[in-house]
Write a structure and sequence with these properties.
With 447 residues, the chain is of the alpha/beta class. It has 2 domains: 45-204, HUPs (Rossmann fold); 220-399, Argininosuccinate synthetase, chain A, domain 2 (Alpha-Beta Complex), CATH 3.90.1260.10. The chain contains 15 helices and 14 strands. Pathway: Amino-acid biosynthesis; L-arginine biosynthesis; L-arginine from L-ornithine and carbamoyl phosphate: step 2/3.
């Protein structure tokens, strides 16, 4: 009897590879059928975060095309961007939306998201005042509210697969309504460029403003009452200085008046309540400070920041009113918080900023930190005076009924409240660990 042929390991490998390829192909077919089943049977209503721009306008027919029979409900949130919201609503219907909501949420945005972040002193990576970051969870919360009201099956957004906003939208939905399906067309479709989107829009009857599309502003922008951001085009090279045409809110420092302006801001428990002695609601107050700050070139930030998804991005931010408020709030805390509280809160602010930046507004830790912050702000009440001049904010005095500053104690002149000889015993005890270590090292060296 002849020998059996030896097994060929390469043949076995190829055979197994072929089997795996067949399995993968079958799985893809099953997945496609499952997706088809989901789109046909389960996804009957989709709530879309709608801006009125090209991306989200194209998404409406794309959703209807890929989720057969589904209604698309467009939700446009007014957080202070200068839009013609009647035109936005009209465009959403013309693009195929079954229903359109336009929500004015500026007051809620400032009172429930911006002011708590100001109180926390949270700034991302030392520069970014979180303008987009804390707007997204509120917008997403409104999407969830409407999805539940409309008994919708899914929420869709127009964020790309490279940025932070996709995370912010989706984490909020997961935190508030985990049963709702999330749809992110930019991670799914085969449209790769603005030209592709324009062709798709034209083929599906989406209204296009050809004047703006032929000569679009070259930067990607996010605009709300707190800030305006710019990314893309020549800004993608960090070596390039921003052109003056970038700025749509603020004067450049060179364009600012040659004369300084003094303003006062009043705070109550860490919340700004008045400008120049005039009590104002949140929206009016920030609107006035934006106008004043923009005139003087205040709040322009150029940062190469670390995105959550792992890459660095370069952005230009305009924050005239926000920069003034954050500066003034910090000045008042210098006056009203004791050393331990201020230092601990300063460290906590970095964590708070990271949580907001990462889309974790509705996380237990952020909520717990906000509870701590509220306690710290009980005495942050008073008035701050500032000098504004060509892009600079300069302190010009602060007062508070809760001030911890005592001229009696700190004066270099004669006083009757502080015995300077007490410092000797304090220093001896405070420095005792250092002294004991030095003595131990000296004794070791002598052996």
């Amino acid at each position: 009897m002849g020998k059996l042929p030896r097994k060929n390991n390469n043949t076995k490998y190829l055979h197994n590879t072929t089997k795996r390829a067949i399995i993968y192909e079958v799985n893809e077919i099953i997945f496609a059928h499952c997706m088809e089943g989901i789109s046909m049977k389960q996804i009957q209503k989709i709530v879309l975060a709608y801006s009125g721009g090209l991306d989200t306008s194209v998404i409406i027919p794309w959703l209807k095309e890929n989720y057969k029979g589904a209604e698309v409900i467009a939700v446009c949130a007014d957080v202070g961007q200068p839009e013609d919201f009647q035109a936005v609503e009209k465009k959403a219907y013309a693009s195929g939306a079954a229903k359109v909501y336009v929500l004015d949420i500026k007051k809620e945005f400032l009172e429930d998201y911006v002011w708590p972040t100001v109180q926390a002193g949270a700034v991302y990576e030392g520069k970014y005042l979180l303008g987009t970051s804390f707007a997204r969870p509120l917008i997403s919360k409104k999407l969830v509210d409407i999805a539940l009201q409309e008994k919708a099956d899914a929420i869709a957004h127009g964020a790309t697969g490279k940025g932070n906003d996709q995370v912010r939208f989706e984490l909020t939905v997961k935190a508030l309504a985990p049963q709702i399906t999330l749809i992110a067309p930019w991670r799914m479709w085969n449209l790769k460029s603005r030209e592709d989107e324009l062709k798709y829009a034209e083929a599906h009857g989406v209204p296009i403003d050809y004047m703006s599309e032929e000569n679009p502003y070259p930067y990607s922008m996010d605009w709300n009452i707190w800030h305006l951001s710019h990314e893309g085009d020549d800004l993608e090279n960090p070596a390039n200085a921003p052109k003056d045409m970038v700025y749509m809110v603020s004067n450049t420092p060179e364009q600012a008046p040659d004369e300084a302006e003094y303003i006062t801001i009043d705070f109550k428990q860490g919340i700004p309540i008045a400008v120049n002695g005039e009590a104002l609601d949140a929206v009016s107050l920030l609107t006035q400070l934006n106008k004043i700050g923009a005139k003087h070139g205040i709040g322009i930030v150029d940062i190469v920041e670390n995105r959550l998804v792992g890459m660095k991005s370069r952005g230009i931010y305009e924050n005239p009113g926000g920069a003034i408020i954050m500066y003034a709030h910090r000045e008042l805390e210098y006056l009203c918080l004791d050393r331990d509280m201020y230092h601990y809160k300063e460290n906590m602010a970095h964590t708070f900023a990271d949580l907001v930046y990462d889309g974790k507004w509705f996380s237990p830790l952020r909520e717990a930190l906000s509870a701590f912050v509220q306690k710290t702000q009980e005495t942050v009440t008073g008035q701050v005076k500032l000098k504004l001049y060509k892009g600079n904010i300069i302190s010009a005095g602060s007062t508070s009924p809760y001030s911890l500053y005592s001229e009696e104690y700190v004066t270099f002149g004669e006083d009757a409240v502080y015995d300077q000889t007490d410092a000797e015993g304090f220093i001896n005890l405070f420095g005792l660990p250092l002294k004991m270590r030095a003595l131990a090292l000296q004794a070791k060296d002598k052996k």
